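Q: what sequence does this backbone want?
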């Protein structure tokens, strides 16, 4: 359910982003760039690849990306920030390698949701020694970043948030039958408590102050030098004095 929601939103977010180079950081099970038409697309991972890889793969650390400054047109981070070794440095690297007016698409788990509440309860049970054998519903590593906290980070790095949305309001249940019974929460949650969705997506644009992208500059045509005007001397010459 959650993966299907993210795949649909990613397809919509990257469809009309144009350029030459697009990179997905993490989660190769999600083909986030399949609906994008850039000629060069990669999937980068900082861990062993799992699932089918549908684009050229690159192994690197997200807080030290092996790309030159201002060289990438689109970066997609599906749950990459919250699982990164250093989320702040990772986002700074994203800002560094993105071209001016380049876009970044970020998805993350919402800590202010039923899913986030269950995750915190699981950590609390483990801390008390009550739930060591009970696996957590979401990945145990990493830190879930709040939606508004992420927007603040982006603003500090001169990003402009273009769009943001939430999804998946059903309770965190493993049974497909029970998930189907709670399907009515999707329409109700989207209308009455949208910020409590289990997952969010943010689309931001890198802005550079003092820079404005324009089209091709037309060189002004050089005018041919005008030929010097010839002015006829219309004054009648003085008659010579006649000799007697």
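A:
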């Amino acid at each position: 359910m959650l993966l299907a929601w993210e795949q649909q939103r990613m397809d919509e977010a990257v469809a009309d982003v144009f350029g030459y180079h697009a990179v997905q950081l993490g989660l190769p099970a999600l083909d986030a760039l399949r609906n994008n038409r850039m000629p060069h697309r990669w999937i980068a991972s900082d861990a062993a690849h799992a699932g089918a890889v549908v684009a050229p793969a690159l192994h690197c650390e997200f807080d030290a990306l092996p790309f030159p400054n201002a060289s990438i047109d689109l970066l997609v981070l599906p749950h990459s920030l919250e699982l990164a070794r250093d989320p702040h440095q990772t986002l700074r690297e994203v800002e560094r390698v993105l071209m001016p007016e380049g876009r970044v698409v970020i998805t993350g788990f919402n800590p202010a949701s039923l899913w986030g509440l269950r995750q915190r309860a699981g950590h609390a049970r483990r801390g008390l020694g009550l739930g060591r054998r009970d696996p957590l519903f979401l990945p145990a590593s990493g830190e879930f970043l709040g939606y508004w906290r992420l927007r603040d980070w982006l603003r500090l790095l001169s990003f402009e948030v273009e769009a943001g949305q939430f999804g998946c309001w059903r309770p965190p249940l493993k049974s497909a039958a029970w998930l189907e019974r709670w399907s009515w929460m999707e329409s109700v949650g989207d209308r009455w408590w949208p910020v409590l969705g289990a997952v969010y997506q943010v689309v931001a644009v890198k802005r550079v102050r003092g820079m404005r992208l324009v089209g091709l500059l037309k060189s002004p045509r050089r005018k041919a030098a005008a030929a010097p005007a010839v002015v006829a001397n219309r004054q009648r010459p003085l008659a010579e004095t006649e000799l007697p």
